[in-house]
């Protein structure tokens, strides 16, 4: 009886995390099979912010310039009071001596996904299987078996290792029985996209702006084609929240107009703050939303996921080439990336939400005064930018054995 072909890495999920991992491993000569439940790239308007270190990482695939060409370079971002205007504007060009990309790039993540799929086609030892849903996982001392469902039938794929990057509802994580610890934020987030040019009517508006307000905060993010508007709500079903009349009310409350807004996209979603109890289980490794999810206030979710993929694949490539170093070597990935998810990604996102949500006038003013002091002090300004751009978290990883 022929032995099954296990000479490959299986990757569950073809989002940015899975595709970065696939491109990295394929470039290292490692066979990969990516399985994806969807039948094609989902062109939804999810994450759109690429931070400086992520742009550096994507250079290895030639993807950085693609994102820049398809997106918008944003060196400035700010906290604003919804009524009185700018509170503190942060300038990423202050980090020009630290990174070749001292700016954010606002570009829809699906554009990166499309690029990476085309990039992967150059490798004959890489494949993507669509309409292929991950169901369950088993493993032994030598291999991993991933059960997938395709057209109503199940099939077992085998490989040496498996990367579970199959999203927040990860079948891989659930099959392994790994806890997904954390909480669900009480608000539902409504995201809208409109071609209306907010910068023409809101004085000194940066391309990325967090607008604080005791009654309803707002986030405005500009892309090459649209402005994205994020507002919270605690009332109604998703259908009621995205009702066209209600959507117009929310947009008119941001900037009142005599005519209705053109809305090209709308979606309502619940937000969670969760981190998997373990990122490593034998020959299976979790990455991206399968390992951690957080609110989008700071744009760290997708970026942290791509950082997961790069960190993981560096270590997995070393293990592939020299199995004698042992599976235990992968635990450093677990220690490093879980720490970042908890201490950096979650912490910054929760702090941003706290600033935007604050209703007490004295506490709001204290936040404002603190932000102003940071911006006015060159060294504090740089330190804040290092943390919020995720550059500092990558430096800190080196001290984690």
Record keyword descriptors for this entry.
401 residues, single chain, eight-stranded mixed β-sheet, six-stranded mixed β-sheet, alpha+beta, globular, 20 strands
In this structure, how is the largest beta sheet organized? Answer: 8 strands, mixed
Proportion in helices: 25-40%
* Coarse shape: globular
Based on helices, strands and strand pairing, what is the structural class?
alpha+beta
Span of the ends, CA to CA: 43 Å
* Average pLDDT level: 91
Low-confidence stretches: none
| Radius of gyration based on Cα positions | 22 Å
Number of helices: 12
Strand percent estimate: 25-35%
Strand order of the largest sheet: 6-5-14-15-16-13-17-20
- Count every beta strand, where a strand is a DSSP E run of 2 or more residues: 20
Explain this structure:
Strands 6-5-14-15-16-13-17-20 form an eight-stranded mixed beta sheet, sandwiched between helices. Strands 8-2-1-12-19-18 form a six-stranded mixed beta sheet. The chain has helices spanning 16-27, 52-58, 63-70, 109-120, 171-176, 238-241, 244-254, 301-321, 331-357, 361-376, 378-388, 391-397, and strands at residues 9-12, 32-35, 49-50, 72-74, 76-81, 85-91, 104-106, 126-129, 133-139, 144-150, 153-159, 161-164, 180-194, 208-212, 218-222, 227-233, 265-276, 280-281, 284-286, 292-293. It contains twelve helices and 20 strands. It is 35% helix and 27% strand. The mean pLDDT is 91. With 401 residues, it is an alpha+beta fold. Helix 1 packs parallel to helix 4, helix 1 (16-27) packs parallel to helix 8 (301-321) and helix 8 packs antiparallel against helix 9. Strand 9 (133-139) and strand 10 form a beta hairpin.
């Amino acid at each position: 009886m022929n032995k099954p072909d296990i000479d490959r890495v299986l990757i569950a999920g073809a989002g940015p995390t899975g595709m970065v991992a696939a491109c990295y491993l394929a470039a290292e000569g490692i066979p990969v099979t990516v399985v994806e439940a969807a039948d094609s790239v989902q062109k939804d308007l999810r994450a759109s912010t690429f931070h400086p270190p992520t742009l550096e990482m994507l250079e290895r695939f030639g993807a950085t310039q693609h994102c820049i060409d398809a997106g918008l370079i944003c060196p400035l971002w700010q906290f604003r009071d919804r009524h009185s205007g700018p509170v503190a504007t942060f300038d990423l060009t202050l980090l020009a001596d630290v990174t070749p990309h001292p700016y954010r790039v606002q570009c829809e993540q699906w554009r990166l996904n499309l690029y990476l799929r085309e990039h992967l086609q150059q490798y004959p030892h890489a494949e993507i299987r669509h309409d292929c849903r991950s169901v369950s996982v088993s493993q032994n001392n030598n291999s991993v078996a991933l059960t997938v469902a395709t057209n109503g039938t199940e099939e077992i794929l085998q490989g040496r290792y498996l990367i579970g990057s199959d999203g927040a509802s990860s079948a891989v994580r659930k099959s392994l029985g790994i806890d997904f610890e954390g909480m669900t934020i009480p608000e539902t987030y409504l995201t809208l996209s409109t071609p209306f040019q907010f910068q023409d009517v809101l004085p000194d508006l940066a391309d990325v702006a967090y607008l604080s307000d005791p009654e309803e905060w707002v986030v405005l993010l500009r892309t090459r084609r649209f402005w994205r508007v994020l507002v919270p709500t605690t009332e109604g079903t998703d259908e009621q929240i995205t009702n066209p009349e209600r959507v117009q009310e929310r947009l008119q409350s941001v900037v009142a107009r005599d005519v209705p807004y053109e809305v090209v996209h709308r979606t309502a979603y619940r937000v969670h703050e969760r981190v998997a109890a373990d990122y490593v289980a034998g020959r299976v490794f979790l990455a991206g939303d399968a390992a951690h999810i957080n609110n989008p206030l700071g744009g760290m979710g997708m970026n942290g996921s791509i950082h997961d993929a790069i960190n993981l694949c560096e270590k997995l490539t070393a293990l592939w080439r020299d199995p004698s170093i042992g599976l235990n070597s992968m635990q450093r990935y677990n220690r490093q990336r879980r720490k970042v998810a908890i201490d950096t990604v979650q912490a910054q996102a929760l702090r941003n939400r706290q600033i935007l949500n604050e209703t007490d006038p004295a506490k709001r003013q204290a936040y404002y005064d603190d932000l102003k002091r940071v911006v006015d002090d060159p060294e504090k300004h740089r330190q804040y930018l290092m943390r919020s751009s995720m550059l500092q978290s990558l430096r800190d990883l080196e001290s984690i054995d």
